[in-house]
Design brief:
Structural class: alpha/beta
Number of helices: 23
Radius of gyration: 32 Å
Helix content: 40-55%
Strand order of the largest sheet: 6-5-4-1-2-3-7
Number of strands: 19
C-alpha cells in the first residue's frame, strides 16, 4: 500500500482562519440603489464569490474595461467534505466558464478573440477553490495605472490612494462586501441581500485584501480556459483545475478537507433530505383537504388546514419510534438505535424454517401458471434480500481490488402479473429480518430522495411497492446507473411493479436482479385469496427474526474467512473466477440452514437449492425471449420481401418483422437493443440481426411445417 499514490491533506485552514471572527466597525453615510455604475471607472477587479452566475461574469468583462481581472469561485457549504465533491465542483466551474466566456452574446469575433488573448496572457484570470473553506463574498476594485496590478502570485497592494508600493500613480479603491454572490439575481434586488461599500477606506481595504489574498494564495487552483469548450452534457475530467495543477507540478498539489463536524453533518443536504422524507407523509396527509395552487402558483392555507396538519404531525410524532437504519461495527449490528444481537435460539430457527416452507407451499394452492418456477424465483429474491445488508461490504471490497462488476446487484425488481404475491413476499421477508415491514412511499423514488435514504437507512433495505412505469422510466436510468456512492454503508433497493411494466433496457437488466412472473392468483377466485391471506397472516405471526440472525452470523463468518484468505473471489461465477458471486454465497448459506432445520419427514424442496448469478442471468431476458419467439413463430413466416403486418421474412443477414405503425415503438422497445439493426429498419418494419437473434433464442428459426423446413 505504501507505493500507491495518495492525496495529502495539509492544514491550509491555518492560513485562512484567524483565532477569532473579525468584526468591521463602520458608519452608514447613505443608502442608494445598486447598479453597474458601482463597477465602472476602475482598472482592476478582484472577486471572491460562490454559486456564481457566469452571465454576470461575462457582462462585467464585456461592459467594463478592466485592465486586470481576477475572480475566485468558492462554494458555500453545500458540498460535502469529500475529494470527489471538490474536484467535481472544479470540473463543472471550468466547463461553465469555457462555454459562457467564449460564447458571449453581442460581442464581435475580434472582441472575443481579444478576451481569449487576455486570458492566455494572464490579465484575465479565474481561480477555483481546492479546499472546503471559501465562504466570504468580497469584491475589490481599484483605479490607477494597470502597471500596479501584479500577477497571480503577487499582491494587490499597489493601487492605493496614498501611492502604490511599485511606484504607480495613486487611484481610487472600493470594497464591496456583503451577502450577495456575483450573480445577476443577487445583484438585481430580487433576493434579500445586503451590500456594503467602502470607498477609499484604508482600514477596510487592508482587511478585505488580506482575507482575499489568504484564500487565493493558499487554497485555489488556476482555471485555464480552452478555446474548444465541451458540450454542456459533457465534463472533461482531465481539465479539472486541481488535476491539471498536480500533473504540471512535479511535487503535485495539496487539497485540504477538514473533518466534518456533527453540526455540519446534521445540516448536510442528504441529512436534511432524510429528515424531510420522515415528516413529509404526515404533512401530505394533513394537506389532503387543501385546494390546489391557483394559476399563479399561490396556495391558500386556512386555519382549518393548519390545525389538521399539526394534528396529523403530532399524532405521527407520538407514534414514531427511533429512526429506521441498520449499521454494522465489526461483527455487531445496530437496528434503529438498539443493539441487534446475532444469537439465535435453535428451536426458533427451526420454527422459522417451518414457517417459510408453509409460506412457499401456499403458492401451490390456487396460483395458476408455472408454480415451481415462481417458487424458485422467489427463493432467489429471498437470497438476494437476506444478503442486502452485506452487499455494500462486497461491493466496497470489489472496488478496492479493482474487481467491481454487476455481480453484486444493488437493485432488484419484482414485476409481472398482479395478484402474484409480490407485496406479501417482501413484507414477510422484512418481518423475518427486522420484526416489521417498512415500505417507502413511491413518490420518493427520485435521485435526490434516494441519496438521502442511502445516508439515513445505511444497510436497511429500501423497498418501493407498486412503482409506476412512468416514474420508473423517468428516474431509473439515472438512479440505477449511478455507481458513485459517497457512503461506506448503504442499502439495497427493491421495487415491485405490476404487469403493465414492459421490458427493460439492457443497461438496467444487467445492473439489477430482475424477477418476472406471470404465475398469479386468478382475480375472480375470491375464496382462495381470502384463504391465502389468512394463511400468510398466521405464518407471519409465528415468524421470528431467528433465522435471519443465524444467517447473518454464518454469513459474517464466511466473509471473514474470505478476507482472512485474501480471496474475495473464493466463491465465483463459473464463467468469471475473479468475481464474487453474491447470489451463490447467499443461497449456499440459506439453503444449508433450511437443510439443517427441516421438519421431520420433510424433504428439501426443489426450489431451495444453491444458485449462481450466471443461472439467473440466463433467465433475466426471458420476457423479451417470449415476445421474440411469438413474433418469429413459424406460422408468421412469409416469403414476401415486404411481409404483411404481424409476419416476418429473411433478407440477407437480417430478419424483417412487419408491425402496425401504432405498435412500432412499443414492439421495438420490447427487443434488446443489441439485436436491432437500425440502419435496415424502416417505418412499419423492424430489422434484426439474424445470427444474434437465433443465438438469443437458442435455436434456429423455422417456417411453418406445412411448407417444409426452412433450411438455412
Amino acid at each position: 500500500m505504501a507505493d500507491q499514490p495518495q492525496l495529502l491533506f495539509e492544514d491550509a485552514e491555518s492560513v485562512t482562519r484567524r483565532e477569532v471572527l473579525n468584526v468591521v466597525h463602520a458608519r452608514a453615510e447613505s443608502i442608494a440603489d445598486f447598479g453597474g455604475q458601482y463597477f465602472a471607472g476602475f482598472h482592476t477587479f478582484r472577486g471572491l464569490t460562490y454559486t456564481s452566475s457566469m452571465p454576470m461574469i461575462a457582462a462585467l468583462l464585456r461592459d467594463h474595461d478592466f485592465r486586470d481581472f481576477e475572480c475566485i469561485f468558492g462554494h458555500g457549504g453545500i458540498l460535502s467534505r469529500e475529494t470527489a465533491d471538490v474536484l467535481a465542483f472544479q470540473a463543472v466551474v471550468r466547463g461553465d466558464l469555457e462555454r459562457q466566456i467564449l460564447r458571449l452574446k453581442g460581442v464581435t469575433d475580434e472582441r472575443r478573440q481579444a478576451l481569449y488573448d487576455r486570458i492566455a496572457d494572464g490579465s484575465v484570470r479565474f481561480l477555483v477553490v481546492k479546499d472546503a473553506i471559501a465562504h466570504a463574498k468580497i469584491y475589490l476594485l481599484s483605479g490607477g495605472n494597470a502597471k500596479g496590478a501584479n500577477a497571480l502570485s503577487g499582491s494587490i497592494e499597489g493601487d492605493g490612494q496614498e501611492g502604490a508600493s511599485d511606484g504607480s500613480a495613486p487611484g481610487r479603491r472600493r470594497v464591496i462586501a456583503g451577502s450577495a454572490n456575483l450573480s445577476e439575481r443577487a445583484f438585481s434586488g430580487r433576493q434579500a441581500e445586503t451590500l456594503i461599500v467602502f470607498d477609499d477606506d484604508r482600514v477596510a481595504w487592508d482587511h478585505y485584501v488580506a482575507q482575499y489574498e489568504a484564500v487565493r494564495d493558499a487554497s485555489t487552483s488556476r482555471v485555464p480556459i480552452s478555446p474548444d469548450p465541451a458540450p454542456v452534457e459533457q465534463v472533461h475530467i482531465e481539465r479539472t483545475p486541481a488535476l491539471v495543477e498536480a500533473e504540471e507540478n512535479p511535487e503535485g498539489t495539496t487539497l485540504y478537507l477538514p473533518a466534518q463536524g456533527l453540526e455540519e453533518a446534521e445540516a448536510s443536504y442528504p441529512s436534511v433530505v432524510a429528515r424531510m422524507e420522515a415528516v413529509k407523509p404526515a404533512i401530505r396527509r394533513g394537506m389532503a383537504g387543501a385546494s390546489r395552487p391557483d394559476r399563479r402558483g399561490n396556495l391558500r392555507l386556512t386555519p382549518r388546514i393548519v390545525r389538521e396538519i399539526v394534528r396529523v404531525v403530532r399524532s405521527r410524532d407520538a407514534e414514531a419510534g427511533p429512526p429506521t437504519y441498520l449499521a454494522r461495527t465489526g461483527d455487531a449490528f445496530t437496528l434503529s438505535d438498539a443493539p441487534y444481537p446475532l444469537e439465535a435460539d435453535p428451536d426458533a430457527v427451526r420454527g422459522d424454517v417451518a414457517a417459510w416452507l408453509a409460506f412457499f407451499d401456499n403458492y401451490e394452492h390456487g396460483f395458476v401458471g408455472d408454480v415451481p418456477r415462481l417458487q424458485r424465483d422467489y427463493f432467489t429474491f429471498m437470497c438476494w434480500f437476506y444478503f442486502a445488508p452485506l452487499m455494500c461490504d462486497l461491493r466496497n471490497a470489489a472496488l478496492r481490488s479493482n474487481a467491481f462488476s454487476f455481480d453484486q446487484p444493488l437493485f432488484a425488481v419484482l414485476y409481472g402479473s398482479s395478484n402474484c404475491g409480490k407485496t406479501s413476499l417482501v413484507e414477510a421477508l422484512m418481518a423475518s429480518m427486522f420484526g416489521h415491514p417498512r415500505i417507502v412511499d413511491t413518490q420518493d423514488f427520485t435521485p435526490g430522495r434516494l441519496r438521502g435514504l442511502q445516508q439515513s437507512y445505511k444497510r436497511f433495505p429500501v423497498v418501493f411497492d407498486d412503482v409506476t412505469r412512468d416514474r420508473f422510466n423517468r428516474y431509473a436510468d439515472e438512479i440505477v446507473k449511478d455507481e458513485t456512492i459517497p457512503f461506506a454503508e448503504y442499502p439495497c433497493f427493491a421495487l415491485s411493479m405490476n404487469a403493465d411494466a414492459r421490458s427493460f433496457k439492457s443497461e438496467i437488466v444487467k445492473r439489477c436482479l430482475m424477477i418476472y412472473t406471470r404465475t398469479a392468483l386468478p382475480g375472480d377466485n375470491t375464496a382462495a385469496r381470502r384463504r391465502l391471506q389468512r394463511s400468510v397472516a398466521a405464518i407471519r405471526e409465528r415468524m421470528s427474526t431467528s433465522l435471519f440472525r443465524e444467517y447473518l452470523r454464518r454469513m459474517l463468518a464466511e466473509l471473514d474467512d474470505m478476507e482472512a484468505a485474501d480471496a474475495t473471489n473464493a466463491i465465483a461465477a463459473a464463467d468469471d473466477p475473479d468475481v464474487t458471486d453474491a447470489l451463490l454465497l447467499s443461497s449456499s448459506v440459506l439453503s444449508g440452514l433450511f437443510c439443517e432445520n427441516l421438519p421431520p419427514e420433510r424433504e428439501l424442496p426443489h426450489w431451495c437449492t444453491t444458485m449462481t448469478l450466471a443461472e439467473y442471468q440466463q433467465r433475466a431476458f426471458e420476457r423479451p425471449r417470449r415476445i421474440l419467439a411469438a413474433l418469429l413463430s413459424p406460422e408468421r413466416h412469409s416469403s414476401e420481401r415486404r411481409p404483411p403486418e404481424q409476419c416476418w421474412t429473411v433478407v440477407g443477414d437480417n430478419l424483417l418483422v412487419a408491425v402496425a405503425p401504432i405498435e412500432f415503438t412499443r414492439t421495438r422497445a420490447d427487443i434488446p437493443d443489441w439485436l436491432l439493426d437500425d440502419t435496415a429498419s424502416a417505418s412499419g418494419q423492424i430489422a434484426l440481426n439474424r445470427k444474434l437473434t437465433e443465438d438469443f433464442l437458442g435455436s434456429p428459426l423455422r417456417r411453418s411445417r406445412r411448407w417444409g423446413w426452412w433450411r438455412r
